[in-house]
Amino acid sequence: MNAYQPRTEDMQFLLSRVLNAPAQLQALPAFAEVDADLMQQVLEEAGKFVGEVIAPLNRDGDEIGAQWADGAVTMPPGFKGAYQAFWQAGWPALASSPENGGQGLPTVLEAMLYEMLSAANIGWTMAPGLLHGAYECIKHHASDELKAQYLEKVATGEWLATMCLTEPHAGSDLGLARTKAVPLPDGNYAVSGTKIFISGGEHDLTDNIVHLVLARLPDAPPGPKGLSLFLVPKFYPDGSRSRVHCDRIEEKMGLHGSPTCVMRFDEAICQIVGEPSKGLNAMFVMMNAARLHVALQGIGLLDAAWQKADAYAQERRQMRAPGKGKSAAEADYIAEHPAMRRILDTQRAWVDAGRVLAYRTALELDLIKHSADAATQATAQRWCALVTPVMKSVFTHQAFHGGSDCLQVFGGHGYVREWGIEQIVRDARVTMIYEGTNEIQAIDLLVRKVLTDGGTGMNALLDTIAADLPKSAKTHTPAMARIQTLRAITQQIVQAAPKEAALAYRVADDYLRAVALVLMDWAWLRIEAGVDAGTPNADARWLVPAKALRSWVLPEFQMRSFIIVQQCVAA
Ligand SMILES: Cc1cc2nc3c(=O)[nH]c(=O)nc-3n(C[C@H](O)[C@H](O)[C@H](O)COP(=O)(O)OP(=O)(O)OC[C@H]3O[C@@H](n4cnc5c(N)ncnc54)[C@H](O)[C@@H]3O)c2cc1C
Asked: Who contacts 557 (Cβ-Cβ below 8 Å, separation ≥6)?
């Protein structure tokens, strides 16, 4: 079984030729020194680290997994050493501010790093995956005292962090959370309650763990508006242990390298982060960062599945492929059979569209942070708000379903453990569930974001997309026609939604997928525009997947718009 190996030259092509990222970033004073050479160097070093240190641990992570005994969790062999090497080399701090111990590099490099890490070993990657969100949350909402104690440790990854939201009866609906926080005379709080499914709630990777916990104050109103956020460390600054216990870890379908913990808070002394009853606001900073990361998990896992399937299809021979003559004595490679070609080229189309969208979103995050121009910031905010739930949903969906198609390329050999493709399918399944299920992402997009402004923001996003199409695609093209249809169906839902309360919720997923297809079309038109005579292997590497997108992926747009129109008419 071959471990995943990052192919950074493809990523570099998308970053530089397609998104023109180095020039865009250098226009921001914060990144004046970050040129194309530096970005390439960081990417290559990251690829080397991921390929040499993280990927080889993937199999043990799955087969041995994290182990719980008496409240302590031992991570799979090699995980701790790899994490120590990771943080000491400064990888977690890539995009954190230099004043907090970070390297101050662009977010897009961090996004590319996490895509590769997820592809190589998602179980291991879950541990540092929440760090950047925790860093932003503490930086923007915690008191100066908390920042002095925790910000740099989290920014650099010396300590890992968790996000403690879910409770046994409160999953998608966090407003049902019952964990209590009682104010103490000294200004601290005591938190009591049980949180479940907490990724990395306990482990031996770092000396300390910083838990960010949603809980309710005694006089707080019911529902999500009554939740406050608290920081509970495993160890306090004086070295004493807090009353936070890991009662067990879950047995699960995949992701065995990541301990999914039941955490008991037993009057654990802690401090509040941000204002009372404004916990969800503070937590959203972390959740948004985490949603982009989960989209990158989907993209990475699908790329890893494709890599395995592509390699296998080029070695295994079965039957004659059509048009190859009739001699039964010879057999052709699986890769030459049209049904298998279709699977492989289609997944490539998804992965590279995902990369363009995720990298562009990361660039927009840097514009939000570092641009001095209010209009640029507003456009970037809109992009991130609308595109993030779309990416989280469709690329995690595709990681599982497209990963399963890649397993099909192996026939029966994919269903047995030897080739490692079944692990990818098992690991990918949860990405559709956590960080807000994909149903919740669709509702977030349509009900909370598109309908609340009557479709104005979505139309503005479509203006941005239309203006950014290559010249050849700007008039009377299928891409422009799909953009117009999406504008029309947005208006149709806006008008029909008030007639029937359930309508928008019923078509939310169709709508999200229609938006995704328009975005993917844009992404591939930009990729094709970036290909020129000097692009190595341009035909097979870029133009064949572009064709697959048009043949096998984009036709779904008609089906989704048909469903939406039917439902609106019937409302
Ligand atoms: C491996 C793993 C790691 C996790 N890590 C963390 C973590 O680190 N921190 C943390 O706090 N949580 C974590 N979670 C929890 C995860 O975020 C929740 O499982 C998820 O939010 C869904 O909640 P639930 O499981 O209670 O499902 P429910 O909310 O009960 O949902 C059940 C089904 O109903 C659907 N549904 C619910 N409400 C609606 C609605 N309004 N409209 C349409 N459909 C709806 C859901 O989409 C889902 O399909 C993790 C979970 C797993 C499995």
From this structure: 482, 485, 514, 517, 518
| Ligand 1 binding pocket includes 437 (Cβ within 6 Å) | yes
Angle at 149 between CA 147 and CA 154, to 5 degrees: 75
The answer to whether 318 and 18 are in contact (CB under 8 A) is no
Of 118, 125, 165, 166, best ligand 1 pocket probe by most atoms within 8 Å of the beta carbon: 166
CATH class assigned to 8-139: mainly alpha
Q: What is the pTM of this model?
A: 0.98
**Is 435 labeled as catalytic in the residue annotation?**
yes
* Closest of 8, 354, 300 to residue 126, by C-alpha: 300
Residue showing tokens 């040129």: 35
Q: Spell out the CATH class of 159-278.
A: mainly beta
Q: Which residues pair with 264 in a beta bridge?
A: 194, 245
Ligand 1: which residue has its CA nearest to atom 2?
197
Where exactly does CATH 2.40.110.20 map onto the chain?
159-278
For 280-328, the pLDDT digits (tens) are 988 887 777 789 999 999 999 999 999 999 999 999 999 899 987 766 6
- Does residue 447 line the site of ligand 1, with CB under 6 A? no
